């Protein structure tokens, strides 16, 4: 009779632990989703800013059509990207194209002095800082989630509950491309 109670007690403890582990992993997963949504909000603001920036530059640098077209293509690609991996790759391309666009202001003093361009460039810089902060928050949430599903004893239940590893929002192989200062030659 007492061994029956011990076995029942162990089963109850295991079930309670499984519920606890499941709830913790759900909370971590929700945090990752919320962090990605925060990045998405910042990226949408940047996407909305790009056409205004391109139109401002068009008036001063009309023969820089290739750079302007690259920015628009990168923006459209970034807007249609889905999931952290695709969004990360598309946003890396957009960041590079925007860097080249901003570098054009060095070759056009009138553009650089234009109040509208200065305001848009300032807004873009502010958004880039917010995006970087959102990426750090997202990557931290992903790190906590991935650690949570790999730590024992939750790792015993994570696979059964359908929790799989999440990808970081990283610049990846094109990191050197983004960090390289664009060269403007005429």
For the structure shown, list the relevant keywords.
186 residues, rod-shaped, LemA family protein
Helicity range: over 70%
Q: What shape does the CA trace take?
A: rod-shaped
Q: Helices and strands: which structural class?
A: mainly alpha
Uncertain segments of ≥5 residues (pLDDT<50)? 174-179, 181-186
Distance between the terminal alpha carbons, to the nearest Å? 91 Å
DSSP strand count: 0
**What radius of gyration results from the CA coordinates?**
24 Å
State the major sheet. none
Q: What is the H-and-E element order?
A: HHHHHHH
Quote the average pLDDT: 83
Per DSSP, what share of the residues sits in E-state strands of 2 or more residues?
under 5%
Number of helices, where a helix is a run of at least 4 consecutive DSSP H or I residues: 7
Account of the 3D structure:
The structure is a single chain. The protein has helices at 2-60, 65-80, 83-107, 109-113, 115-150, 154-158, 175-179. It has 186 residues and is mainly α. Helix 1 (2-60) runs parallel beside helix 3 (83-107), helix 1 runs antiparallel to helix 5 (115-150) and helix 2 (65-80) packs antiparallel against helix 3 (83-107). InterPro entries: LemA-like_dom_sf, MamQ_LemA. It comes from Bradyrhizobium diversitatis. It is a single-pass membrane protein. It is found in: Membrane. Belongs to the LemA family.
